[in-house]
Amino acid sequence: MSLAMSNITRRFGQTEVLRGIDLDVAKGELIALLGPSGSGKTTLLRIIAGLDWPDAGNLSFEGQDWLLKTAAQRKIGMVFQHYALFPHMTVRENIAFGLTVLPRAQRPGKAQIAETVQRLLTFLQISQLADRYPSELSGGQRQRVALGRAMAIEPRVLLLDEPFGALDAQVRRDLRRWLRSVHDSAGITTIFVTHDQEEAFELADRVVVMNGGVIEQIGRPDQIYDHPATPFVARFLGLTVELPVVMKAGRAEAAGFDLTALPRRALPEGPATLFLRPADIQPVADPAAPFHLTEISSTGALLRVVAESDSGCRIEAEVPRRDGHGLETGMNVSLCAVAGQIFPGLASQRASSPVAAETTPHALKENRL
Ligand SMILES: Nc1ncnc2c1ncn2[C@@H]1O[C@H](COP(=O)(O)OP(=O)(O)OP(=O)(O)O)[C@@H](O)[C@H]1O
Questions:
Q1: Which CATH number is 94's domain given?
Q2: Residues 6+ apart with CB under 8 A from 34
Q3: Which domain covers residue 349, as residue numbers?
Q4: Same-domain status, 122 and 187
């Protein structure tokens, strides 16, 4: 194990912003810390970096207690969203900086520093920028240089805090692929903070979903995407339709819905909540069904379709445009769910949710449909 954290707890005044974090990171792994603003991602990163200390818990690296070491002793490379490159230094000088300020005993000779920098410039595909100043670089180029600067000291761990947060979407996508290939070649254990799920899922070997100072779920991107472990993760990953259902012999049932495509689940009989992505709901024409289409609008490749029951239950679905031929407002439909996640009991609903939380599936059937 490369990095091991257990029960990391951090309070600011009365507020506990990290509440018992347990996380192991393997050597060479790329981990994304994903969560909404204020969930504690940066605080955790700062503790790993040695810029802050926990009130309780343990942090070790390859068996060494890192809480006994200073930031410099941990040998960490960091990149932030707004990394301040030195404006009066060229790219080459910026990348060399971390090496030139090492204590004399550890500092490589001038020729060796120049060689290291040249190797990094080539490796990071930024040789053409070597003699430019930061003001002559785009935002994306600056972040590439910032990574070069962080990597020059041959860090044991790389910590990246929203490094692409200030860049536009296309540049972010390019940099993500570039970072993944840099990581695959260099193999440095890396922790990456983001609140952008696409970024986390595309980049990381494992994603750590944080909320309110706790870890809600750790897993490979596809595991988390397909099987969110908690209602929070489900909502955060876009399963925004929350439907009260009743479990019968492992199957979920709800009036007006065809849920037979969902696999059986080993859940207790009775009320449960089904979380769905709008793209996993297919309206199917059915004159006897309780829903009718009230809105159809195009977002380009997708049709956004709203289905309502007479009693006011409102469900939004997204249908690929090519599958939406024949859908018309006013037509009666049943709603077929092709994927979803079920949690026992009735999950607390947000104000915008279609059906009130306390409505049992039975009541839904009787009162609303
Ligand atoms: N030095 C501090 N003093 C007091 N409160 C702090 C301090 N640093 C962070 N906090 C609080 O701790 C909580 C977690 O902050 P943190 O920056 O770790 O969250 P985050 O998930 O990284 O959020 P963001 O994505 O917005 O950066 C927030 O409520 C923040 O206000």
A1: 3.40.50.300
A2: 41, 194, 195, 196, 197, 200, 207, 208, 209, 210
A3: 238-368
A4: yes
Bridge partners of residue 189, in order along the sequence: 157
What element of type H or E holds 342? strand 341-344
Answer yes or no: is the ipTM higher than 0.85.
yes
In ligand 1, the atom with minimum distance to the C-alpha of 39 is 21
Number of domains in the chain: 2
Question: What is the best residue among 11, 15, 42 to mutate for testing ligand 1's pocket, by most ligand atoms within 8 Å of CB?
Answer: 42
* Same domain assignment for residues 160 and 221: yes
User: Is residue 233 included in any domain, yes or no?
Assistant: no
Question: Does 40 contact ligand 1 (Cβ within 6 A)?
Answer: yes
Strand order in the sheet with 270-276: 251-253, 241-248, 270-276, 341-344
- How far apart are the C-alpha atoms of 180 and 160, rounded to whole Å? 13
Please tell me if the CB atom of residue 35 comes closer than 6 angstroms to any atom of ligand 1: yes
Do 30 and 161 lie in one domain? The reply is yes
Q: Which pTM value belongs to this model?
A: 0.85
pLDDT digits (tens, 9 = 90+) for 328-342: 999 999 999 999 999
